Amino acid sequence: MQVALTKPIRPLPQAIQRLTDLAYNLWFSWNPDALKLFARIDAAKWEQSGHNPVRLLQELDDAQLEALSKETDFMNAYQQVIAAYDSYMSGTAWFQEKHADRSYVQIAYFSAEFGFHESLPIYSGGLGILAGDHCKSASDLGIPLIGIGLLYKKGYFTQKIDISGGQQAELLQYDFNKLPIKQVMKDSLPLLVTIDMPGRAISLQVWSVQVGRNTIYLLDADHDANNQADRELTAQLYGGNQDTRIAQEILLGIGGVKALRAIGYYPNVYHINEGHAAFLTLERLKELLHLGLPFHVAVETVRAATVFTTHTPVPAGHDTFSIGMVEHYLGPLLQDLSRHKQEIIALGLDYHSGQFNMTHLAMNTAGLRNGVSKLHGQVSREMFREFHGNIDAGEVPIDSITNGVHLDTWTAPEWKELLDRFLPGTWRQEQANKDQWQAVKVIPDDSIWKVHMQLKENMIRYARRNLAEQRRRNGESEERIEEVRHYLNPKALTIGFARRFATYKRANLIFNDLYRLKKLINDIDRPVQFIFAGKAHPADFPGQELIREIYRVSQKKEFLGKIVILENYDMNMARYLVQGVDVWLNNPRRPLEASGTSGQKAAMNGVLNFSVLDGWWEEGYNGSNGWAIGSVGTADWDLQEKENTGAIYKILEKEIIPLYYNQGELPHQWISRMKRSIESLSPVYNTHRMVQDYTELTYLPTADRARHFAGNGYEVATKVADYKRFISSNWYHVKIIGVDDRSAKISTSNPLVLNEQSTKEVTADVLFGPIWPPDTVVEIIYYEEHNGAWNQIVVPMKPAGEPADQTQKYKAAIPGHLVHGPHFSVRVRPVSSNFVHDFELPLVTSTLSWK
Ligand SMILES: *Cc1c(COP(=O)(O)O)cnc(C)c1O
Predict the structure, then answer these.
(1) pLDDT score, position 6
(2) Where would I find the DUF3417 domain in this sequence (predicted)?
(3) In the structure, which protein residues have their CB atom closer than 6 angstroms to any atom of ligand 1?
């Protein structure tokens, strides 16, 4: 497919022509030398452009360009960057080496937001940044991935904080010709993808973003062929009402699949990054039904090729729509497939609420599903237990792949240079290998402290500029603006807190005892200061109230210049903060933070995490690489808040502050903790490790499964679908008609002693009706206490003798003290070697009476 510039950057002098290539590949955003090269062209314009190289190049005049091409230093730097770029683009990487036999794999990654760089504002927070980092590591590792998203004319929003701490959400209208994206053309005309919506069609233009070796396609409804209201559908990320939301999700999911086809892609893996994109499975179903596949076979085919990642346990994070709304907006598709309307609705129906739930749709149409940290996996398994027929939470088929961040994007160049000097030459490519990081220990303390202090000063200068700009715009006095120059003390222990202001993140927790806080902050010898930043969704009024509260506190005389709140948190600010503070604070209500990633960015920069044991930190914290707030126990939120608040002050007073200020020339103990943090966390919480996990645990098996299912005229898909249908409709015949554990032999050295070492044989008679016994397994289930938790033990039973009268006898040995009923139960469930996981059909027949 041809990709063209509608308004090309005018031709650059021959000698520097390839700056255009650099500007249109976001590879520049994670390469310090490329960034430096652009800054060097015109530092002021580079800043004004919001670090957008396309705008920068468009705004230079001929004389400036000519002069550049004659400047020797610049030309040397240019040559070096171009050489590095060419070598990156043409080289092979991990995937080609490790999985050379999998060249057929192609992954389509669907996400409502992507955070690649501040110059492309189509993200709101963690989910988008994660998607961006995912694509970057996929490129670095040579993983064949195509992204699909939406291009928002007005982005998310620009945040301003007014003089009373109110959040002003400002919407800018972006000129797509000035962003680092290109329009996709077909036969010299813009490619258009059309989607049938109730009473009309919507035409979507397609834009492409180059992210290293991979391309991300973004859909845009702002086209002349559409009515005004439809043109606005892709105006804003998470804007508008429920109607906007469902329409956007249709554009993303259904439009996304259509765009892939129009460009010529038929991927074998479809990754739904959060429920927003789940409609993609309906378009896939439609394609298969049009090929003539029966509905149940089409569903199996789709499931075989789909991976779903769920990102939050917060209910508001799971989109739901009324059935009426779904019937209206999906009208054309449902009409087209009218014979299957009820079955399609059922794929997303939440029987409890009667609503159509995008997470349910994704669960029902994705073979593999995962949460984003170990704890979140566990919480999701609990949440979806009932959805899977009330099996034990541990058996619910939702795994976890813990999030990470793109090391090259988030680690300061100064750190990378330092690591280059001490770590093995392969440390970047093999960053997920712990051995590569051992040498962090031998980096001299003074080198580490020098880098950290320099980054801290950069960050403080940045924060002061942000505050001065806030005040200038708010029409404050010259004196108030000047004052900011003395805000934030580079010598003071500096704690950062920046993230979306969603209420469960409890940004104001530290203010629960202002008196105690005041003492800490104003300690002459050992001062502490706080920097806050973050956006609240424009419809989230409690979130905006948090901003107002922090602002008010920051304006109190005793906190002026020691607690500050910066405006317009974005990726640029995030880099300054995660690289420049001493401590990164995170105190969400556990377990609502599915993973969190900003603390991972901080860790890579030697910033110490001080966090509730939630999300990734529950597994990242090892007792000496940061600090944990509170215990893991309580589900009572008031109690949790009290306990967490107390813990925060106590740990600050007793551990963090004394450690930081325990310094002669250098705070050696602090630095040694920084080293432990880098060494233990960097190799794990990076997206190279994460994307390698996705590849090996989900993408490769899914690609193979998709081919296996679709091959030979959908033979396996048909077999599996028919099998499931047969089993489901006949399962009611399956009954456990008797369990015998009394007459069984007790085998122990002394038959008079019934202890836990003794075993006994149990038999069970199962009536199968028309179901073939080998299509099932019969198991004994009991629970064993281990470290205060009850773990489920599963003992498979073996057939004993031949079946008679549709009944089969089974036997197994279990500990002798267990009695059927109070201690153990027997269950039967269907199995198939073609199931992707054991509980693919939520049919379990059990003797458990209290279920
Ligand atoms: C990393 C990042 C986030 C996500 O932070 P969490 O700690 O996971 O909430 C949000 N916004 C920006 C701009 C980021 O860089």
Answers:
(1) 54
(2) 12-120
(3) 125-126, 129, 499, 569-571, 574, 596-598, 601
Burial of 430 (0-12, 13-18, 19+ CB in 10 A): middle
625 CA to centre of ligand 1 in angstroms: 21
Among protein residues, the one whose CA lies closest to atom 5 of ligand 1 = 598
At residue 323, what is the residue type? I
Nearest CA to 579 out of 445, 464, 407, 425 is that of 407
Query: What confidence score (pLDDT) does residue 851 get?
Result: 41
Measured from the CA of 124, which atom of ligand 1 is nearest? 11
Give 533's strand partners. Answer: 498, 566
Tokens of 801: 């003798």
H or E stretch covering 325? helix 323-329
Q: Which long-range contacts (CB under 8 A, 24 or more apart) does 81-88 make?
A: 81/22, 81/31, 81/33, 81/34, 81/37, 82/18, 82/21, 82/22, 84/31, 84/33, 84/34, 85/21, 85/22, 85/25, 85/27, 85/31, 85/34, 88/27, 88/212, 88/213
The region of weakest confidence among 43-47, 469-473, 527-531, 751-755 is: 751-755
Return the structure tokens found at 187: 């036969």
Angle at 47 between CA 41 and CA 53, to 5 degrees: 55
d(C-alpha 112, C-alpha 371), whole Å:
17
Q: Tell me the residue length of the chain.
A: 851
| Residue 505 burial (C-beta neighbours within 10 Å; 0-12, 13-18, 19+) | buried
- Amino acid, res. 468: A
* CA quadruple 220, 222, 226, 232: dihedral, nearest 10: 100
Domains of the chain: 2-90 (no CATH), 94-400 (3.40.50.2000), 413-435+493-685 (3.40.50.2000), 734-846 (2.60.40)
Residue 597 Cα: closest atom of ligand 1: 8
**Helix, strand or coil, per DSSP, at residue 685:** coil
